[in-house]
């Protein structure tokens, strides 16, 4: 318990990750091997921890879903909903002295390492390097052409889960963001902002 107060993280991985408990390191090590011990009985979802599987299993039934008041987003996690709500306000509460700001603490943690120049994970195909195994795995899809996320309604496939979530809205007719100047609609607020420049002349 005292490590919470002292900040000591004695369990370390060669990639730079460190933690307070051996159990957390064991879970982390599976991200390097892609070993996923627990699988959903209803779909292809896999995870290393029982709690994540339990959260996933809530989704099909809608149990305890936290819903956004601005759009159709929902989550089983109150924390995820709070993070999502920042997309409607453009608020970025996590800030670095250099001027960088972001919506999530984990992104700030990643950013802080850019000041030290620490980039321990390197791509074997090009000069790309990163500080997280998640980003490296995502980057490698550029070289492999892997697109593991598939739409259940059509032939659409993509490399990132976020792209699939946006795509799925098109099947439900959920083009939530509408232009005030014309009939243009889009499922993403960022794309609408870019579109609005065609009316304002802003570059």
From TrEMBL:
Subcellular location(s): the record lists: Nucleus
Q: Which GO terms describe its cellular component?
A: nucleus
Q: Which residues form the C2H2-type domain?
A: 11-37, 66-93, 94-120, 121-148, 149-176, 177-203
Q: Which InterPro entries match?
A: Ikaros_C2H2-ZF, Znf_C2H2_sf, Znf_C2H2_type
> Which GO MF terms are attached to this record?
DNA-binding transcription factor activity; RNA polymerase II cis-regulatory region sequence-specific DNA binding; zinc ion binding
Gene Ontology terms: biological process: regulation of transcription by RNA polymerase II
| UniProt keyword list | DNA-binding, Metal-binding, Nucleus, Repeat, Zinc, Zinc-finger
Which named protein is this?
A: Putative c2h2-type zn-finger protein
């Amino acid at each position: 318990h005292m490590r919470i107060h002292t900040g000591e993280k004695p369990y370390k991985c060669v990639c730079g990750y460190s933690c307070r408990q051996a159990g957390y390191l064991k879970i982390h090590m599976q991200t390097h091997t892609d070993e996923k011990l627990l699988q959903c009985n209803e779909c292809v979802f896999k995870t290393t921890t029982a709690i994540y599987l339990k959260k996933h299993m809530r989704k099909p039934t809608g149990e305890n879903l936290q819903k956004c008041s601005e759009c159709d987003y929902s989550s089983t996690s109150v924390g995820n909903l709070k993070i999502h709500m920042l997309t409607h306000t453009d608020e970025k509460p996590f800030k670095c002295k250099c001027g960088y700001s972001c919506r999530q603490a984990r992104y700030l943690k990643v950013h802080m390492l850019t000041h030290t120049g620490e980039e321990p994970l390197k791509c074997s195909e090009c000069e790309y390097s990163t500080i997280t195994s998640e980003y490296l795995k995502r980057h490698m899809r550029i070289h492999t052409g892997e697109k593991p996320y598939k739409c259940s309604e059509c032939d659409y496939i993509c490399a990132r889960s976020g792209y699939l979530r946006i795509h799925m809205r098109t099947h439900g007719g959920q083009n939530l963001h509408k232009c005030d100047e014309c009939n243009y609609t889009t499922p993403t607020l960022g794309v609408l902002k870019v579109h609005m420049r065609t009316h304002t002349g802003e570059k």
